[in-house]
Amino acid sequence: MKIGIGNDHTAVELKNEILKHLISRGFEVVNYGTDEVSSYNYALAGETVSNAVVKGDVDCGICICGTGIGISIACNKVNGIRACVCSEPFSAKLSKQHNNSNILCFGARVVGSELAKMIVDEWLDATYEGGRHAERVQTIMDIQDRNC
Ligand code: RB5
């Protein structure tokens, strides 16, 4: 599986920790984020990762800013993206199982690196369940189509 990762200036260190972790787990990773600690607009990082996901250049994305909030809002502006901010592993797992999230977001100012790795692992190891969730996820996508 190929994962796109994106981040702003607040999350360079955490991004690198996550990147190493993903590679150690055998994933292919494309780094779309900044490696500079000078100010970098989280919205642009979110857009780049989101475009890579919808085009199929990567299978899914992980996006990190200070809180995870700004970058997730930006990701969710791209058609086809379901980005979820998760600060603990339970929500990360459910965001995949129930919401079929295709981008995981979290905040470098919110979670430490060990917790972030647990969040990432729960999300990557979970599978979308479909079934009763399919109609609800379809409704989300219909809302997007009705309002673009
Ligand atoms: C940058 O200062 C900060 O606003 C950004 O990383 C993020 O937290 C936005 O949601």
How is this fold's topology laid out?
Layout: E1 2-7, H1 12-24, E2 28-31, H2 42-55, E3 60-65, H3 69-75, E4 83-85, H4 89-97, E5 103-107, H5 113-125, H6 132-146
Parallel strand pairs: 1-2, 1-3, 3-5, 4-5
D-ribose binds next to helix 3.
> What's the alpha carbon Rg, rounded to whole Å?
14 Å
How does the overall form come out from the CA principal axes?
A: globular
Q: Can you list the ligands bound to this structure?
A: D-ribose
Instruction: Encode the helix/strand succession as letters.
Output: EHEHEHEHEHH
User: Largest sheet at a glance?
Assistant: 5 strands, parallel
What top-tier CATH class fits best? Answer: Alpha Beta
Number of helices: 6
Strand order of the largest sheet: 2-1-3-5-4
First and last CA, distance: 30 Å
| Overall structural domain count | 1
The CATH superfamily is Sugar-phosphate isomerase, RpiB/LacA/LacB
Strand composition percent: 15-25%
Low-confidence stretches: none
Helix-strand category = alpha/beta
Return the average pLDDT rounded to an integer: 98
CATH topology heading: Ribose 5-phosphate Isomerase B, Chain: A
CATH architecture: 3-Layer(aba) Sandwich
Share of helical residues: 40-55%
